[in-house]
Specification:
Blueprint (H helix, E strand, L loop, with lengths): L22 H34 L2 H6 L4 H27 L3 H27 L4 H21 L1 H9 L3 H11 L4 H4 L10 E2 L7 E6 L20 H8 L2 E3 L2 E2 L5 H10 L18 H6 L3 E5 L21 H16 L17 H4 L24 H8 L8 E6 L29 H30 L1 H4 L1 E6 L14 H11 L4 E4 L7 E3 L3 E2 L3 H9 L1 E2 L19 E6 L2 E5 L25 E7 L18 E5 L9 E6 L2 E7 L9 E5 L13 E6 L5 E6 L1
Parallel strand pairs: 2-6, 2-7, 3-9, 4-10, 5-6, 14-20
Antiparallel strand pairs: 1-11, 3-8, 7-8, 12-13, 14-15, 15-18, 16-17, 16-19, 19-20
Helix pairs in contact: 1-3, 1-4, 1-6, 1-7, 1-12, 3-4, 4-5, 5-6, 9-15
Length: 685
């Protein structure tokens, strides 16, 4: 047999491509991984940490939007991963143009992220705001980027800091107040002990952000001219005039009301955190029909939430994006998820009418009932007698901001950046609040009419209150600690009406009522014993001897409030031009009206009116100058020009009288009011 012929060894150049892994390739991938870790660290500090910190302290954000745990987990994944993934893809794309371009692009990204981080740090640690803060952040970021490019130690520190995003996610999921919503733990709430006696139906309405003083007239009684239905309720119930909420924040105030205990820890307003509450106490005996808004205290075993606001991952992403813009802005802003809460209307929810339009001449437009809050419509539809005792519960975000309703029920648009404090602004905020409160009075009237028509008026225990108030005192507007210190009468004191079954006459009780008294009072009236310790005392018991009240800006840190029933601040005298007809006047100056186009296509039948007018004036118009705003020749508001802010030299006016408007084109005029009262018409743009 012949020897086989051995082929010569192949030349390396002809043997195909080199192995996939070479020292040079491995080095490039290590460098790319290092860059990715650096970007992840910076994005974690700029986006993941601040956003998850805000959301983690705001479990009510997820409760209001009825977010399922999977939606929250997806949102967290998007916040923690998507920005890094996007930058990684950008890096790969720039790498196609060569190593130098890739390194330059990475340095630019690092510089931008360092500038964004400097803005956030500077806003919290320095008095700089706006353009000065941006310039300082850019200079600081440029120096930091130069240091990064020159010394490798900066990059190594950033790579170690890449552990941050997983830590931030873990803190959100397992240690933040929102963790109870994302990963709820099952808890069985205690049922009340049923005692002898009648168990009447219970109808309970909790309004939101309603100070008692907003309802009062000069005589200290409910202003029946402005709020006839609140006055009607007061005339047939016991009005606990010296009633105060427990906190200025609903996630603490409402659980205290429904558990009878002062807030001790910053817990999510969720049944897993407050397993023992009104719904579990009555749930063994009563059917529960609960309409909650930013709480979820009624466990699924007791009740379902039949009408939800807009929900799902999409709305969470949208609203989180708005929060991120506030977090990253170089100006001060109230970073409060609650600002996004708005009651969906019946039309938006696609609900049929529960009741016909009331026969009220001020209720002018046939379709305004579509503007009725959807959960209120469902609540009304459920007010029917039942063979079993029933608890009808509604927490309605009215007259809570955002203020969008006129007294008639028509809605109006408003920009999101209008301040609520400062000269001119706080007066506008209060006017918008009072207009929405008058619409809320209409909803109360619808409730009373439905209760009478159904027979529940005489049979049920009826309670109406608010969880907290809000201050409209200049420089102390809102519900925070400063507002409590300077205007506690507006923040803490709230309306509290209790009508017992068969009550024939109204009366006023000025005992020291605190909202932890609500649950014990309901328990006594329904003959159910509460099986846990409560801090409150029933209205059937002797009043407290102490006049001191407990109020919590933070759980576990009680503030002591003193004083009796507050008096309503005096209303400003109406300007004599209000309601007058204005003829031809000489022109003198210019102004810009942002929503001028809305007056060219007014459709009152749609239930929306351009009732808020806002814009800017040139610098030659001094601060404090009065402007008269007229629609179709009649003055509907007189407002001042406010000092310049980030929006420019601005003005804004509410025109709540819907009789000013007509279908089609409406004439809008703006006049500068002189010191002697003469008017000069401003040319509008």
């Amino acid at each position: 047999m012949a020897d086989p012929v051995l082929a010569p060894p192949a030349d390396r150049r002809d043997s195909g491509p080199p192995p996939a892994s070479t020292p040079a390739t491995a080095g490039r991938w290590r460098a790319e991984l290092g860059r990715l870790l650096e970007v992840a660290a910076l994005l974690g500090l700029v986006i993941t940490q601040p956003l998850l910190d805000v959301l983690g302290r705001s479990p009510d954000f997820f409760l209001f939007y009825r977010a399922a745990p999977r939606d929250v987990l997806l949102l967290v994944a998007l916040i923690a991963v998507l920005p890094t993934l996007a930058v990684a893809l950008l890096g790969l794309a720039t790498g196609l143009a060569g190593g130098r371009v890739r390194r330059g692009a990475h340095l630019a990204i690092v510089g931008l992220l360092l500038a964004a981080l400097a803005v956030q740090v500077g806003r919290h640690g320095t008095p700089l705001r706006g353009v000065p803060l941006l310039l300082a952040a850019v200079l600081l970021a440029a120096a930091a980027a130069a240091a990064y490019a020159r010394w490798g130690g900066v990059g190594r520190v950033l790579r170690v800091a890449a552990i941050g995003p997983p830590v931030f996610v873990a803190l959100f999921l397992f240690a933040s107040p929102a963790s109870a919503v994302v990963l709820p733990r099952a808890h069985g709430g205690a049922a009340g002990v049923v005692g002898p006696g009648e168990h009447p139906p219970v109808v309970m309405i909790v309004l939101d952000e309603l100070p008692l003083v907003s309802l009062l007239g000069p005589d200290g009684r409910i202003d029946a001219a402005a709020y006839p239905h609140f006055a009607e309720l007061a005339a047939g119930s016991t009005w606990y005039r010296n009633a105060t909420g427990v906190s200025g924040w609903t996630p603490y105030a409402l659980p205290a009301m429904l558990t009878g205990r002062y807030p001790a820890q910053p817990l999510a307003p969720h049944y897993s955190q407050y397993p023992d509450n009104l719904f579990t106490a009555l749930g063994g005996l009563y059917d529960v029909r609960a309409q909650e808004s930013i709480t979820r205290l009624c466990p699924p075993s007791r009740c379902e939430q039949p009408t939800n606001p807009e929900q799902g991952l999409g709305v969470l992403v949208r609203e989180s994006g708005k929060l991120l813009r506030q977090v990253a802005a170089p100006v001060d802003s109230r970073i409060d998820p609650e600002e996004s809460y708005r009651e969906r209307t019946r039309a938006e929810a696609g609900l049929d009418a529960a009741e016909p339009v009331p026969a009220d001449p001020r209720f002018r437009f046939d379709s305004l009932d579509d503007n009725q809050p959807a959960r209120f419509t469902s609540f009304l539809a459920g007010l029917r007698p039942s063979s079993r005792p029933t608890l009808h519960f509604l927490h309605l975000l009215m007259p809570h901001a955002p203020w969008t309703f006129l007294p008639s029920g028509a809605r109006y648009a408003a920009p999101e950046d209008l301040p609520n404090d400062g000269a001119g602004w706080v007066e506008l905020a209060r006017a918008r609040h009072l207009a929405q409160l008058r619409y809320t009075d209409r909803l109360v009237g619808e409730t009373l009419r439905t209760l009478r028509a159904s027979g529940l008026w005489d049979k049920a225990l009826i309670l109406l209150t608010a969880d907290h108030g809000v201050s409209f005192t200049r420089d102390w507007q809102g519900r925070g600690l400063d507002a409590i210190d300077h205007a506690a009468g507006e923040v803490a004191w709230v309306p509290m009406f209790v009508r017992t079954p068969g009550q024939r006459a109204g009366r006023v009780d000025d005992r020291n009522w605190e909202h932890v008294d609500l649950l014990p009072t309901i328990a006594d009236e329904t003959h159910v014993r509460i099986p846990w310790r409560v801090d409150g005392r029933s209205a059937r018991q002797a009043p407290r001897q102490s006049a001191e009240k407990h109020f919590y800006d933070r759980p576990g840190q009680p503030l002591t409030l003193r004083g009796g029933v507050p008096t309503r601040p005096p209303d400003p005298a109406p300007h004599p031009l209000l309601g007058t007809l204005v003829g031809d006047r000489p022109t003198g100056g210019t102004a810009t009206v942002a929503n001028r186009a809305a007056f060219e296509r007014v459709d009152p039948a749609a239930g929306e009116l351009p009732a808020l007018v806002w814009g800017t004036v040139p610098r030659e118009v001094p601060d404090g100058t009065l402007l008269a705003v007229a629609v179709n020749g009649r003055v509907g508001a007189v407002v001042p020009v406010v000092p310049r802010d980030k929006g420019g030299r601005r003005f804004a006016a509410l025109l709540p009288d819907d009789h000013l408007y007509r279908a089609g084109t409406n004439r809008l005029d703006l006049y500068r009011v002189g010191a002697d009262g003469d008017l000069r018409r401003l040319t509008l743009s």
